[in-house]
Design a protein that fits this description.
Shape: rod-shaped
Strand content: over 45%
CATH class of the largest domain: Mainly Beta
Number of strands: 34
CATH topology of the largest domain: Jelly Rolls
CATH architecture of the largest domain: Sandwich
Helix content: under 10%
Number of helices: 0
CATH superfamily of the largest domain: Galactose-binding domain-like
Radius of gyration: 50 Å
Structural class: mainly beta
Length: 442
Amino acid sequence: MKLPIALKTSFSFLLFLFIHQFSYAQCPNLIENGDFTQSQTNWLYSYPNNPASGPIFFQNNYLEIWVDNDGNLLPGNILLTTANSFNLTKDETYTFSVNMKRTNDIISACNFSWALLDQSNTIVLKLGGVYTTGGNNALGTATEIPLNIDTKYQTCFKFNSNSGTYKLALVWESFEDGLARDVIIDDISLIQISNKINPGTYPNCFEKPFAISIPSCYPTNSISWTGPGIVSGQGTTSLTIDQPGTYSVSISNPAYNCLVTDNISINFSFKPKLQLKSIVPQNCSPLSAVNVEATGGTLAYTFTWQNSTPNGSTVLLAAGTYTATVTDSKSCTDTLSVIIPDSPFIGNAELIIPTIFSPNNDQVNDVFIPHKMENIEALHLNVYDRWGIQVYDSHELKFSWDGTDKQGNNCHAGTYFYIAEYDAVCGVNSHEKVKGTITLIR
């Protein structure tokens, strides 16, 4: 039979449920409408043996349940479930938390638990064990809910059943005679702790540090990373790394008795670095020898040049701007812009010798010197008089004859003969021999 709450005696009790939503920032709570501020259709209630004897009243922000002791509730009976199912994944870790307190200290015990149901309403897992209000017939292994102390009960569990859709349920564990009891329940939360490391998008060819991360929405007291190239972020949800290898994360929250781990293998190759080593102008050529050098990466290297047929680390190039590229055996590349200046090109040798000079100390054409000499690197000059006697001999590039013989005597005015032999800087015929006459005027 059902009795009004004011007339309840020792053979009945009352269970009040005031349920409010509780969730962590950004982390989705799988329990919909936990605070009952929305439509009551988010929840379903059931008294399996006699539904008429146990009405449930949805009030403003709480739920009131009346239960009598006419033998209508048996251990395992489901009092309340979420109307909508939620997805759970095998081998993933979840946390369940609920705040509970009792507001009366009456003799007889209420014993109940929270559980997960499959689609056939079969209990697959109880969350946090059995709870009791204490008093007579309290289950000895149950956790007693304190009087007037709002207490959070929380547990961490790895879901070992098959992936699928499930519901949260309030399950009756025993029925005992006694006076009315009030239990207030709020802050229900069921969230998934996703411990999977997210590698993000990292390059196959490494150039600068990048971050790997784990979701940051769930409560945690400790995050610990291990790996070969940790740059920064130890103890946080985002780790900056600069080395390939295996990275592991350990996430713990002692309050939830929770410890989850994951590891991931990050594979990448280091980029080679290309740099200019030298630019050497070439003699007798408008080209310059350009040498670039690569370091790092993975041997062997291949060098290519944009807008240029020659390839390799050393090439001959005309003046201009070129782009060099190095590619290593892992197909990682680096590029370098090279500007080649105009080469100091050296042309053909040229020697022009005057035909007359007047060593009379008038400061005009007083000495016999070359009129023009270019691209010559060695010179031997001999001067002879009309009888074939050598009057002057020089191995200097910038020769200068003042019109005296080897004894320092002034040579007579007249015609003299010279033979000039020189080596040209460039050219196929690099050694030349020229003859001519010079007139000395006094």
